[in-house]
Amino acid sequence: MSLATLDDVFTEQIEDLYSAETQLVSALPKMAGAASDEKLRQAIETHLEQTRGHVERLERIRGDLGITGSQRCKGMAGLLEEGEEVLGESGSGAPKDAALIAAAQRVEHYEIAAYGTAWTLADELGYDDAKRLLGETLDEESQADELLTKIATGGLLRGGVNREAAER
Amino acid sequence: MSLATLDDVFTEQIEDLYSAETQLVSALPKMAGAASDEKLRQAIETHLEQTRGHVERLERIRGDLGITGSQRCKGMAGLLEEGEEVLGESGSGAPKDAALIAAAQRVEHYEIAAYGTAWTLADELGYDDAKRLLGETLDEESQADELLTKIATGGLLRGGVNREAAER
Q1: CA–CA min distance A83, chain B (Å)
Q2: Is CB count within 10 Å lower at the N or C end of chain A?
Q3: Which CATH superfamily is domain A6-167 in?
């Protein structure tokens, strides 16, 4: 596609995010299933529900602004391939959970960067409804990332997943 | 590889980062060459120099801890494929620069997530030297991300790359 105007860039970002989120909806159930820690499993399942909502918000933006194209997000594809590798490795319990969290936080940060860009562009272009919807999702992605940090470092679990793994 | 202990997870993270950074050293010159805005080009070139330093820090950590393995970081590979797509698209000037910044910030956020994880694990495992080196790089990655935001939104440029692109 051509990047002649800022609107073109915004369209490309929305198409990329739409692909990224739909890929993630397919991948998260497997990640949840691989988690040993109950709070981690619940956090991933909750985020799966949120992610379905993120897809719906993007569909509203696409409908409102007449964005109909699509392109496979190669960034998310690579991140999920990396997550698949973790799922395929031997090991279990806290070390495996720590590796799972590491993969999940890479995904969250991808989305934080991408929604941050899209929000800024919507602001610049005066797309107020899109800006509001993108901001809501951006907040949820940041909260999901913070929750994963808490699970890893011990806010939610006694000692955290990492402490439990270090004691092995 | 096996993820039986937290040390295994740390080793995997260092191997992943080492691959990610060396891939990035190869990719950044092309991104710098594609930037129209002088400050953006300079920022990418400065980050290339920093990235070479990040590789050296990882080599010290590998040497100190006897980490000899390697594995291709598929996450970074996907992000750089996405960046290549932007380079291949038609368009120039501010819109293209805005898309370039969007791709670069996804890369920075990957690294922020990955170094954040590695720093936390080094802390947990009592690898004080590694923790210090990883923390130094993490700070530089965060600063690079903030600089890109400033270039995009107008801290450095009159109106910023995005404003210039919106006026086309």
Answers
A1: 9
A2: C
A3: Ferritin, core subunit, four-helix bundle (1.20.1260.10)
